[in-house]
């Protein structure tokens, strides 16, 4: 298909301009008619110093440096960018004054075709449906006027396109409204949270105060040990346990000793009997040695005399007795704390009449706190045991404070979300977290709006990340739009950049350029891997439709 260089679609020509059509030279569009009105001469449009006879217009010879004297021929086509450079002697200006050869296209839409294609022997119905570009019949070519049928077909397709464009715009409006509602929802959540935070801050302050008060007043109280007790009491308990263990060990040893003593006595009796009864005439060396050893042992024992162990035995017996049976330690005395003077004062409260009791109690507590704070009394709070009242107050304070922290961080997150770029009209807020997918080649591709892109091989295996959304961008495209309206068309398009996907073996981290064009529904049209692991996704979405936007350049698909 031939590439048409310069085209200007003229769908809004005024009737008055059309009325003067017949008086214009061939190839002149209505907006240039005024330059060709003079009855006696023609002045080059961009070079008013050059005046020509009227017969020089469309005489297939290029006189004006801007080509304006040849609106209906290809004589000046060397002035176009595609023409080979041809230096024109003395030409001050080589910019073409006209956009092209004007095809009236009656029954369809008037259009300009590049002068290059005028009388080139090819019917360019895509642009000139009336065949007027081949007026000279070069090579015998005859281009009949097809504007009626082409125009009819175009209008039918245009009707579909317009309907689709209206539906797309309606969808877009819905998305914008949805995004507005979502934004309002976030704002509402923030303001609700702010009210809750204010209330909570008060409660936290109160509960903190309460906790500190309880802690302070508990400090002033005499803590009656529940279970663990004071250091002395604990020590007394441990000492009592240890003494009992040692006592048991002594008793065990005494029993063992008595057992061994009895065994020795028994053996001595056996050996003494043996010495009395053995036969000295029986010359057995072993027996003689044993008798001799026994005699030595007995002699040594006699020499040492009887050892009186009764005192020692008495001591052991005394130590082995329980403390309650002797004059030993009175553990009960150590195991219960003695009442302090302050305790006595507290006990004294009980004798006071009701109304006075509370007042006196408070005064006593304050006094005790004062004494603690001035280092005169020991601080119960440091004793390691916390009263239930203090721990309850602390838990209540901490839980309110934690709740406050959570709410404050939610407000932070939501505020950041409001500042985040969700595209024009905040529209992608409505699409965020939704995904669309497409089967293409050996992969299934997925696009999750403002989140990530991925591919999944049909042969199995997991998802491969093709990038995470980083930013919006704009890029210019000049591409085709198919009969169904799918394609990027011509113009600046919104682009979503997805970067830092899964690393590509021997390559970069995968990334995807998602190019958006207006469509009735969200749809991935095409995925191409332009370079290794660098993908481009062409996607249709109503989110990028513009009011009055020409959805597709009709130059290719309309005919
Ligand atoms: C996978 C896919 C392809 C990519 C190769 C690179 O097969 O992600 O798109 O080209 O890895 O090794």
From TrEMBL:
It comes from the Eukaryota. Residues 433-547 form the MRH domain. Residues 1-19 form the signal peptide. One of its GO terms (cellular component) is glucosidase II complex. Pfam families: PRKCSH-like, PRKCSH_1. Residues 303-322 are annotated as: Disordered. Gene3D superfamilies: Mannose-6-phosphate receptor binding domain. Residues 305-316 have a biased composition (Acidic residues). Residues 183-217, 243-277 form a coiled coil. The keyword Coiled coil applies. GO terms for biological process: N-glycan processing. InterPro entries: Gtb1-like (IPR039794), Man6P_isomerase_rcpt-bd_dom_sf (IPR009011), MRH_dom (IPR044865), PRKCSH (IPR036607), PRKCSH_N (IPR028146). Transmembrane segments: none annotated. Keywords: Coiled coil, Disulfide bond, Endoplasmic reticulum, Signal. PANTHER family: GLUCOSIDASE 2 SUBUNIT BETA, N-LINKED OLIGOSACCHARIDE PROCESSING. This is Glucosidase 2 subunit beta. It comes from Hyaloscypha variabilis (strain UAMH 11265 / GT02V1 / F).
């Amino acid at each position: 298909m031939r590439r048409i260089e310069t085209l200007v679609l003229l769908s809004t020509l005024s009737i008055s301009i059309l009325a003067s059509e017949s008086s214009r030279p061939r190839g002149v569009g209505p907006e240039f008619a005024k330059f060709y009105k003079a009855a006696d001469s023609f002045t080059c449009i961009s070079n008013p110093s050059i005046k020509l006879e009227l017969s020089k217009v469309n005489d297939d010879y290029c006189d004006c440096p801007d080509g304006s004297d040849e609106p209906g021929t290809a004589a000046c086509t060397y002035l176009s960018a595609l023409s080979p450079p041809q230096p024109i002697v003395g030409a001050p200006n080589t910019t073409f004054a006209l956009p092209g050869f004007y095809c009236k296209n009656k029954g369809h839409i008037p259009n300009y075709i590049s002068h290059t294609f005028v009388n080139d022997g090819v019917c360019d119905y895509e642009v000139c449906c009336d065949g007027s570009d081949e007026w000279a019949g070069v090579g015998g070519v005859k281009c009949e006027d097809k504007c009626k049928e082409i125009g009819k077909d175009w209008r039918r397709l245009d009707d579909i396109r317009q309907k689709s464009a209206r539906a797309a715009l309606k969808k877009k409006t819905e998305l914008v409204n949805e995004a507005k509602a979502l934004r309002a929802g976030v704002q509402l959540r923030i303001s609700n949270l702010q009210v809750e935070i204010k209330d909570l801050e008060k409660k936290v302050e109160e509960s903190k105060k309460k906790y500190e008060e309880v802690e302070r007043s508990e400090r002033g109280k005499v803590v009656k040990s529940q279970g663990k007790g004071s250091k002395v009491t604990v020590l007394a308990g441990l000492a009592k346990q240890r003494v009992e263990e040692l006592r048991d060990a002594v008793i065990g040893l005494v029993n063992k000793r008595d057992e061994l003593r009895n065994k020795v006595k028994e053996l001595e009796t056996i050996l003494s009997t043996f010495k009395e009864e053995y036969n000295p005439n029986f010359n057995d060396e072993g027996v003689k040695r044993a008798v001799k050893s026994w005699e030595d042992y007995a002699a040594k024992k006699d020499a040492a005399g009887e050892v009186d162990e009764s005192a020692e035995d008495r001591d052991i017996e005394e130590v082995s007795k329980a403390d309650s049976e002797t004059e030993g330690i009175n553990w009960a005395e150590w195991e219960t704390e003695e009442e302090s003077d302050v305790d006595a004062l507290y006990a004294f409260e009980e004798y006071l009449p009701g109304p006075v009791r509370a007042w006196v109690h408070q005064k006593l507590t304050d006094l005790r706190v004062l004494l603690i704070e001035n280092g005169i009394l020991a601080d119960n709070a440091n004793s390691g045991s916390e009263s239930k009242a203090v721990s309850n107050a602390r838990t209540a304070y901490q839980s309110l404070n934690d709740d406050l922290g959570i709410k404050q961080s939610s407000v932070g997150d939501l505020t950041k979300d409001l500042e985040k770029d969700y595209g024009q009209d905040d529209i992608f807020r409505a699409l965020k977290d939704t995904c669309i997918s497409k089967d293409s080649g050996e992969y299934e591709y997925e696009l999750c709006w403002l989140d990530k892109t991925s591919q999944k091989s049909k042969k199995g295996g997991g998802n491969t990340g093709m990038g995470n959304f980083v930013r919006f961008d704009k890029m210019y495209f000049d591409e085709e739009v198919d009969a169904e309206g799918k394609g990027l068309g011509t113009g600046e398009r919104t682009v979503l950049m997805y970067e830092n996907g899964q690393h590509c073996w021997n390559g970069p981290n995968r990334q995807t350029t998602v190019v958006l064009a207006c469509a009735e529904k969200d749809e991935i049209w095409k995925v191409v891997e332009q370079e290794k692991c660098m993908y481009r996704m062409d996607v249709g979405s109503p989110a990028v439709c513009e009011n009055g936007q020409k959805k597709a350049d009709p130059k290719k698909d309309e005919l």
